Amino acid sequence: MSQFRVIVSGGGTGGHIFPAIAIANAIKEKYPDTKILFVGALGRMEMEKVPAAGYEIIGLPIMGLQRRLTLQNLKFPFKLIASMLKAKKIVKEFKPDVVVGVGGYASGPLLKAATKLGVPALVQEQNSYPGITNKLLASKVQKLCVAYDNMDRFFPKEKIMLTGNPVRQDIKNLEAKRIRGIEYFGLDENKKTVLVVGGSLGARTINHAIDAGLDELAKNNIQLVWQTGKLYVDEAAIAVSKYQDKGIKTMPFISKMDYAYAVADVVVSRAGAMSVSELSIAAKPTIFIPLPSAAEDHQTKNAMALVNHNAALLVKDAEAQEKLISTLIDLVKDDEEQQRISKNVAKMAFHDSANIIADEVIKLIKR
After folding, report:
1. I need a labelling partner for 355 at 20 to 30 A (CA). Which of 235, 238, 305, 325 fits?
2. Domains of the chain
3. How far is CA 26 from the centre of its chain?
């Protein structure tokens, strides 16, 4: 059998990189001889994460346009032209059978160059409101794999396939991991536990609201696994020092996310596409606090896709300080409401997304 050649492009954030790696892994599992090359943006997270996952990556000098007026924007056209030329060279030299775009700066120049040269292409859109790169590419590619309904508002209907977002495999079968998670975090298995995650850098609003509510949480016998992000580590350590015996644990980053989900009765989270997909598969009752500065307010739209099905709660970022703790305590105390949300969110979860997308990629090659 001939060896397939695939370029996967995109990145900028973990939310783009993780699905890209999951799709690549699924293709490799089905066709181990496939040669996969990643193309990312120089200086961004993917330049480190992709090699760590065992794949080769080439960086483009592309940058994003700042929304406010800034001198950085003067560099944009030059970097775009340089990236277009480099992308064209990569496609000509690597000779891919298919290209896959996952959103983020780098996928624009690469997919534009590839489709111009007649290479079939597939785009995976993680959000309920697509980024500008994927909107611009929609007319050029053969297939659009999406995670939400009603995406024909943005994309040609005949190209859309509802696949969900690929998530890490280790968040399935969480029930079996609960006891190990309790030991790992040093918790009391008879107390209710809240997991707070604001993304790898943390979330200032969420951190401040939790900090201000520690007394209330401790009084209500609620344990806390709190990912603060690296910028809030010291403040959080001081804040929780008097609650050491109350099961209030802080850390800059949680590496064993499967254990964190396994111990959580309720979760507080931003509403990035990957968080929403993971929490749906984990079937956890979640209070989403969307990041207000996200492009096109897409985090609010991601969260509302669940809230509209009674599958999550939402507290606005601007209201977190006054409403988060009371909403959280009410939910922790209401077992029936937790079960209702869990049941509803489980119905919205997509399983096996990476494999389904990998099959579509191979179909484009064979076509």
Report:
1. 305
2. 5-165+351-366 (3.40.50.2000), 170-347 (3.40.50.2000)
3. 18
